[in-house]
Amino acid sequence: MTSLPAQPRIAFLASSTPEAQAAREHLSAGFGQVAPEDADVLCVLGGDGFMLHTLHRHGALGKPVYGMKLGTVGFLMNQYRPENLLERLQAAHATVLRPLEMTATSESGATVSLLAYNEVSMLRQTRQTAHLRISLNGQVRLDELVCDGALVATPAGSTAYNFSAHGPILPLGSQVIALTPIAAFRPRRWRGALLRSDTILRIEVLDGHKRPVSATADSHEVRDVTEITVRESLERTVTLLFDPEHNLEERILNEQFIT
């Protein structure tokens, strides 16, 4: 159960689709509309992509976020039902997510820091395979991984790109992250690793001039990287709200039994 006021101030945020925009107009007329910084709760209308966009844009506000699906993918969303919204908000279950922090260094020497609520991924930019060196907490664990790329997934993101790359699904609250190779060629049988969430992971690009690699934190990409460092954020958290029958923990569990 949430601890929202009986009449919470709601900021309705919608994706650019006509359906989402129409829903925002309808809900704003019925429940009012405030700016995100003045809201008690953010109500996101769209799909998972727009939810991630909202978390990146407004996550620093520390407001709880309740999504309703009006997009193509909705793993992080509740069903769209405009009726009884206030009752649903009061009955919703809270899930606290802690994103990954990625610091990427490019060939030019520039350094970029980004957050990832789902995953950090590295991908080859050309037909040449990527050659990567992997270190954990300052110790080299894999001298050379020849692959299309690699990714690091949070529990919330483990059912997305990570699962498609044959990585494991992680329970919420497990304090574990997944390191998963993408089309590993050498070592051919290496399937990745489960790491403590406080692990400091460094991935270096070998022979980057011939074999350029990009790094992406959710949907934010950095080209021609020489290395990245990934760790769980020590400061940032975000609270997602879910209807009791559609809570995120149950969805992640169900994913493991779908045939």
Give the tags:
259 residues; alpha+beta; Rossmann fold; Tumour Suppressor Smad4; 2 domains; 6-stranded antiparallel sheet
Short précis:
This protein has helices spanning 18-31, 48-58, 85-91, 161-164, 248-255; strands spanning 10-14, 41-46, 65-69, 93-97, 100-106, 111-116, 119-124, 130-136, 139-147, 149-153, 176-182, 193-196, 201-206, 213-217, 220-222, 225-232, 238-242.
Structure report:
The protein is α+β, with helices and mostly antiparallel strands. The chain has helices at 18-31, 48-58, 85-91, 161-164, 248-255, and strands at residues 10-14, 41-46, 65-69, 93-97, 100-106, 111-116, 119-124, 130-136, 139-147, 149-153, 176-182, 193-196, 201-206, 213-217, 220-222, 225-232, 238-242. It has 5 helices and 17 strands. It has a 6-stranded antiparallel sheet with strand order 6-5-16-13-8-9, with no helix packed on it. β1 (10-14), α1 (18-31) and β2 form a beta-alpha-beta unit. The longest helix has 14 residues, at 18-31. The protein is elongated, with a radius of gyration of 20 Å. The model has no long low-confidence stretch (mean pLDDT 93). The active site is at 48 (proton acceptor). Its cofactor is a divalent metal cation. It is an enzyme of class 2 (transferase). It is found in: Cytoplasm.
